[in-house]
Amino acid sequence: MPYNLLSSSPLVSPAMAAGAPVKTTSGAPGSVCHAPHSPSQEASGSRRRRLWDLEAHCHCPLVGVCLPMEVLRRLVNKALGGSAVANDYEVHAGAVSESARRCKLSELMQADLETRYLREIRVFKEAKSALAVAEMWVRHLRGGDVAGAFWAALTHPRCDAPLRDAMCKDLHMFQHQAGAGVRLEIARFNAVADENALLTRELGRVQERISRVMAQKTTEVDLLHAELLRVRADNIAKDSRILFLLQDLEAARASVSQWEEKVRLQKKLDRMAQRQQELEQVNADLRRKLLTLERAGMDRSRGQKEVAERMLTDSAVLLEPKAPLQLQQRVVLCVGGRSGNIANYRDVVERVGGRFAHHDGGLEDNASVLDASLAAADLVICQTGCISHNAYWRVKDFCKRTGKQCVYVESASASSLERKLQTLSTPIVQDVFPEESS
Q1: Contact of 22 with 131, CB cutoff 8 Å
Q2: Which numeric CATH code is attached to 331-422?
Q3: Which of 91, 141, 289, 393 is the most buried (most CB within 10 A)?
Q4: Looking at the DSSP assignment, which residues form a beta bridge with residue 359?
């Protein structure tokens, strides 16, 4: 019966025209329909057909689809024992002609086809009827895998002549569709190639621009790196100079004896010079006022002149600076006071030439050490506001018994201590004690 494997309706057969019943089997996207036939119509036996056993119209699609051109040319050259000079069409036509009979070339093509499509042959071996072969062919045709399936189906023992005719027709239409698809793919390929060329040119321009930017940035990085090295070198040179200067300063300090003492005396000399300048300014102002009074009151009485001169004399006496207190390296013991002001107390005492000693009045220092410190001191300063009662009475009793001078300071500030020392015109001449009530 005739087959139409890619159509949804079968070709009209004489049996169908006669009104015979028709059986339809759908096992794939296409359908295969056939009319019932007698066992004599179906191929018998289990031997697969050879290439030369097929009809002549099957050889052309079989050779063209199942054998690649380079393989076919290799087989022709092997059969001829040399190199064929014919073109591809002539080689194809000669192979199709030789496939109709058993010869060396047809045997070589038969062996190659059997080896190349062994997997498909094993798959189609499962088919036990022409309908099963047709269904398997449709599945492979829909999937686009036609070369191996075409050879395995054509040579199958259950493939009859109508099925072979239908397969050749299907393959013919498949080749037309494949050709149209190839032309479409070629058009798409050309469009993609044009777009690729455009993108390639654009990519070239972008890469060129990037290369210029990278070269520019590389130059900038090199300049910055050179600047960084220069700055680092400058910093190293500066650090070296600072280190050398510090070493020179330490050497100079070590070489100068009593450098700190000289600095302290220089500060004191500067303060005295500033005080002298202030007094000279006051004296000059008073003399200027006196001259003004003399010029304005030449006719005034001598008594008024004497009064003015007396005022000038009294002012000069009042402004005359007192001789600063000088302890002449005597030991000054400070009992009590805040621990944070010890350094200020020391500075006040050393500023007037004394040697500073301290006892906290029994807060942290041992009270038994207080008597030894009092005995070694030339002058005692008692911070009455920051001292224990026991230490206060021990200081007072010790100074009374030994006749040692003691100065009582109520405030714990360094300025109060300094003012108290300035009230001593002659240091260490007598003991000064507050009243018992204090």
Answers
A1: no
A2: 3.40.50.2300
A3: 141
A4: 335
Report in angstroms the alpha-carbon separations of 237 from 232, 246, 247: 9, 14, 15
Q: Which of 433, 371, 436 is nearest to 403 (CA)?
A: 433
- Asked if 405 and 374 touch (Cβ cutoff 8 Å), the reply is no
The set of long-range contacts for 392-400, using a CB threshold of 8 Å and a minimum separation of 24, is 392/361, 394/367, 394/370, 395/335, 395/370, 396/433, 398/371, 398/374, 399/374, 399/431, 399/433, 400/431, 400/433
Token pair of 260 as six digits: 């700190």
Q: Give pLDDT tens digits for 323-348.
A: 556 677 888 888 887 777 788 888 88
User: Which two structure tokens, joined as six digits, stand for 267?
Assistant: 């500060």
Question: pTM of the prediction?
Answer: 0.36
How many C-beta atoms lie closer than 10 Å to residue 109's C-beta? Answer: 26
DSSP 188-230: HHHHHHHHHHHHHHHHHHHHHHHHHHHHHHHHHHHHHHHHHHH
Written as six digits, the tokens of 320 are: 């005359």
CB neighbours of residue 265 within 10 Å: 13
Helices in 32-101 by DSSP H: which ranges?
Answer: 56-66, 69-80, 88-98
Q: pLDDT tens for residues 242-288? A: 999 998 888 877 776 667 777 788 888 898 888 888 888 888 888 88
Helix and strand counts by DSSP (H, E) for the chain: 15, 6
Tell which residue, 72, 70, 74, has the closest CA to residue 97: 72
Q: Where are the beta strands (DSSP E) in 344-424?
A: 355-359, 379-383, 406-409
Q: Which two tokens stand for residue 324?
A: 């600063």
